[in-house]
Write a structure and sequence with these properties.
The complex is a heterodimer of chains A (293) and B (375). Chain A contains 13 helices and two strands. With 293 residues, chain A is mostly helical. In chain A, strand 1 (46-48) and strand 2 form a beta hairpin. Chain B is built from nine helices and 20 strands. Classes of the chains: A mainly alpha (293), B alpha+beta (375). At the A-B interface, helix 9 and helix 10 of A face strand 6 of B.
Chain lengths: 293, 375
C-alpha cells in the first residue's frame, strides 16, 4: 500500500536531515540570528524616550554618522584593534614557528597546553593584572623607582599603548593556534626542496614557509581583529574610561542613556565597518587562500 | 650526437668519477644506519640504490644532497669533498618521493623556482621554463595551478624543476612508487630516455627490484646499512653473490647441495633430484645464508619437456604440483623425483603449447651452467 504524501514527506531525506541538525539550527536561530535581527530592527525604529516606537526611520544612522565623537571613537577602535592585531600576530608567529619546527613531536601538545594557561583565569582578572603591573604605583613603576632609574613614576595607564598591550596578551593564544596549525600542515620536504633548488634557509622561509603559513596568519588576524574592536572591559579598566572604544559608547547609548535605536544603529555601523575592513583584508590576501590540497 | 651523449656511451670504467663514498658511516644515536659505505658512481651513469625499507638507501641518497650529515667518512662530488657544503650549494638536485611541488605556485613558477639567481633576462628564463616543461611532456602547462595536477604530472614537474638547473647529479628518491603500474612502467622508459638525452648522472633509490633492473647501468643492493652487491643488472640477476641478494632480486629456486670435491677450477656436486654434476669456480662464489650449501636457479632456466622433445643438456623426471596461469606465462610448481620441496618453473605460453594439469608426469630440462652455488 502506498504511503500517504504526508508520511512520505516526513520520511524524506531532506526532512530527516533537518531533524538531525535541528538542535544546531535552533541554537543558531535563537542565539545568533534572532539577536541580530532584533538589533537591525531596533536600529531603524524611533526612540520614544522610555519606549521604542516601531516607526521606520534612518535618522539613527544619520545621527550616529554625523556625530564627530562617534566617528573618532570608531576610528580609534579600528586603529587600536589594528595595532593589537599587528603586535599579537607578529609576536605569535615565532612562537608558533618554534613549536611547530623545533619542539619534538611528542612534546608539542604539552607546549600548546602551556600556552592556554592564561585562559585558566578569567578575562577580567587578566585585565586587572595588567592594571596592577602598569599602575602609577604598580609593579613596573616600583621597580623603576626602586632602581633609581626615574624620580617620577611613569603614567602608563589610560593610554592606547596600555590598552594594546593588555589586549595583545589576552588574544595571543588565539593567534598562535591557527598559525601553528598552518605551519604543521607544511610538508617538510617542501623546505628541503627550497634548499635543494639553491635557496638558503632565510629565502626558503620567505618563498615557501611564509606563503604556505599565510592562511593561518590571515585566520589569526581575523580572530584577533574582530573581537578586539568590540572589546569593552579593557578600555574601561586600562583606559580608565578616558579612551572609550566603540563598545563603550554603544553600552552608554543602550543602557545608560537608554536610546536603544541609536545604540543599535551604532552597533550595526561598527559591525559593518569591521566587516568591510575584514573583507578588504581578505581580498588583498586572496591569492594565499586559493584552494589547495 | 652531443658530446655529453658520447661521454655517456663510453665504457663506465673510463668515465670520470662523479660521486665517491669513502667509508661513510652514519649514526642516529645508537642506531648504525650506514655501516662503512664505499662506492664510486661514474659520470653519466644511471645508478640505483636498491634494498628493502630501512636498509639505508634513502639515507645514503640524502648524504649526497646534503640533507644528512655523515658521522664519519667522506662524500665527494666531482672530486670535491662535500662535508662543509650546504645543500643549496651542491651541484645536485633532487626529485622527492612526495615530489615536494610547491602548492602555492603555478606549474611554471615551480619549474622556475631555482632560477631566481640566474642572470638571464625574464624572457629567457620563461623560455627555459617552457623548454623544461616540453622536455617532460608538459608543454603549455606553465600557467596551471600545481595542486591540481595528477601524480604522474607532479612527478614530471619535479623532474623539470630539477633538470632546468642542469645539475651534475640528479637524485631520485623512489620517484615512481606513488604511481599506478601502467604510468610507472611508462615513466621508467621515459626516465631512461631522458637520462640518455641529458647525460646527467642519475642516482635512483628504489625498493622495486624490477624497476632497478629495467633502468640502471649499475645497482647497489643494500641490506642493513651495507652494500651487499654492486653490479650491473645482468650480473646481479644471474650471479648474485649471496643468497640474500638472490632472494631479493626476482625468484630463485634453492635445492640443498653436497660438495663432493674441487679440482681444476671446478666444483663437483651432488644435488637431490638433479644428480651429480660440476660447476665452475665462478658459479660457486656466492655466500649461503646458513652453513649448508645450496644451488640456486631462476624459474626460466628450467624447461618442461613435452612429448617427443629432447633436452639440449640434461633432464630430470618430475611431477607437476601446482599450476598458476598468467596469460602470457604459466608458472609451474614442479616436484623433482626424490625432492619434497617444489621448484618453480616459468614457461612462455607459445601458440599450440597446452597448459599442463596438476599431477602430470613430465621431464624437466636443465643446464649446470645456469646454476649458482651458494656455500
Amino acid at each position: 500500500m502506498a504511503a500517504s504524501p504526508l508520511k512520505r514527506w516526513a520520511r524524506s531525506e531532506a526532512v530527516n536531515g533537518y531533524m538531525m541538525i535541528s538542535p544546531t539550527l535552533i541554537y543558531a536561530i535563537l542565539l545568533l540570528a534572532a539577536p541580530l535581527v532584533t538589533l537591525v530592527a531596533y536600529s531603524f525604529f524611533t526612540d520614544g524616550y522610555l519606549v521604542v516606537i516601531p516607526d521606520l526611520t534612518t535618522a539613527n544612522y544619520a545621527e550616529a554618522w554625523s556625530d564627530p565623537i562617534f566617528r573618532s571613537i570608531l576610528l580609534r577602535s579600528v586603529i587600536v584593534s589594528g595595532l593589537v592585531t599587528l603586535v599579537t600576530v607578529v609576536l605569535a608567529f615565532p612562537i608558533a614557528y618554534f613549536i611547530s619546527f623545533h619542539v619534538p613531536a611528542a612534546k608539542k601538545s604539552r607546549w600548546l597546553f602551556l600556552i592556554t594557561i592564561p585562559f585558566w583565569t578569567s578575562y577580567l582578572i587578566r585585565v586587572f593584572q595588567w592594571k596592577v603591573i602598569l599602575n602609577y604605583n604598580g609593579v613596573i613603576n616600583s621597580i623603576l623607582t626602586g632602581l633609581g632609574l626615574t624620580d617620577h613614576p611613569l603614567q602608563m595607564l589610560n593610554s592606547i599603548g596600555a590598552i594594546s598591550i593588555t589586549l595583545a596578551h589576552a588574544y595571543a593564544p588565539f593567534a598562535i593556534l591557527p598559525i601553528f596549525v598552518s605551519l604543521e600542515k607544511i610538508d617538510r620536504s617542501l623546505l628541503e626542496a627550497g634548499l635543494d633548488l639553491g635557496e638558503n634557509r632565510l629565502l626558503t622561509f620567505w618563498r615557501v614557509t611564509l606563503p604556505l603559513a599565510m592562511p593561518g596568519v590571515i585566520g589569526a588576524v581575523m580572530i584577533v581583529f574582530i573581537p578586539t574592536i568590540g572589546d569593552y572591559v579593557t578600555p574601561e579598566l586600562i583606559g580608565g574610561g578616558k579612551l572609550p572604544m566603540v563598545a563603550n559608547v554603544i553600552y552608554q547609548q543602550l543602557l545608560k542613556i537608554d536610546n536603544k535605536p541609536l545604540g543599535s544603529a551604532m552597533a550595526i555601523s561598527a559591525m559593518l565597518v569591521v566587516a568591510a575592513v575584514a573583507l578588504v583584508f581578505l581580498f588583498l590576501n586572496r591569492r594565499f587562500l586559493r584552494g589547495s590540497k | 650526437m652531443s658530446q655529453l651523449n658520447a661521454a655517456a656511451r663510453a665504457p663506465l670504467d673510463s668515465r670520470a668519477k662523479m660521486i665517491e663514498f669513502h667509508e661513510v658511516h652514519k649514526y642516529y644515536g645508537d642506531y648504525h644506519a650506514l655501516r662503512g659505505i664505499s662506492a664510486t658512481i661514474r659520470e653519466g651513469e644511471f645508478f640505483s640504490l636498491l634494498g628493502p625499507s630501512g636498509c639505508g638507501k634513502t639515507t645514503l641518497l640524502r648524504t649526497i644532497a646534503g640533507f644528512e650529515d655523515i658521522s664519519s667518512g667522506a662524500v665527494l662530488i666531482d672530486g670535491k669533498d662535500m662535508s662543509d657544503v650546504a645543500p643549496n650549494k651542491r651541484p645536485t638536485n633532487m626529485v622527492f618521493q612526495s615530489y615536494a611541488i610547491f602548492p602555492h605556485l603555478t606549474v611554471g613558477e615551480n619549474v622556475g623556482f631555482g632560477l631566481r639567481r640566474d642572470p638571464r633576462s625574464k624572457a629567457e628564463k620563461a623560455k627555459a621554463v617552457e623548454e623544461a616543461l616540453e622536455m617532460v611532456g608538459l608543454k603549455g602547462y606553465g600557467a596551471r595551478a600545481a595542486h591540481a595536477l595528477s601524480g604522474g604530472q607532479r612527478q614530471r614537474v619535479a623532474l623539470a624543476r630539477a633538470l632546468i638547473l642542469k645539475p651534475k647529479v640528479l637524485l631520485l628518491d623512489e620517484p615512481l612508487s606513488a604511481l599506478d603500474k601502467k604510468i610507472r612502467e611508462q615513466m621508467q622508459v621515459e626516465l631512461i630516455k631522458l637520462q640518455r638525452e641529458v647525460g646527467i648522472t642519475f642516482v635512483l633509490v628504489t625498493h622495486d627490484q624490477e624497476e632497478a633492473l629495467v633502468m640502471s647501468d649499475r645497482i647497489a643492493v643494500m641490506f642493513e646499512g651495507e652494500i651487499a652487491q654492486l653490479a650491473d643488472p645482468e650480473t646481479l640477476y644471474r650471479r648474485p653473490n649471496s643468497r640474500r641478494v638472490a632472494d631479493f632480486i626476482g625468484v630463485m629456486n634453492f635445492l640443498p647441495a653436497q660438495i663432493l670435491g674441487e679440482a681444476a677450477g671446478h666444483v663437483q656436486l651432488e644435488v637431490g633430484g638433479l644428480g651429480r654434476f660440476e660447476v665452475t669456480e665462478e658459479q660457486a662464489s656466492a655466500r649461503a645464508s646458513g652453513a649448508e650449501p645450496v644451488v640456486g636457479f631462476r624459474p626460466e632456466t628450467l624447461t618442461i619437456l613435452y612429448e617427443g622433445q629432447q633436452a639440449h643438456d640434461r633432464e630430470a623426471p618430475a611431477t607437476i604440483d601446482e599450476v598458476v596461469y598468467y596469460g602470457d606465462m604459466t608458472y609451474y610448481d614442479v616436484k623433482l623425483d626424490g625432492v619434497d620441496a617444489p621448484v618453480r618453473i616459468s614457461m612462455r605460453n607459445v601458440f599450440g603449447r597446452p597448459v599442463l594439469d596438476v599431477g602430470t608426469r613430465t621431464r624437466v630440462a636443465w643446464s649446470a651452467g645456469a646454476l649458482v652455488l651458494f656455500r
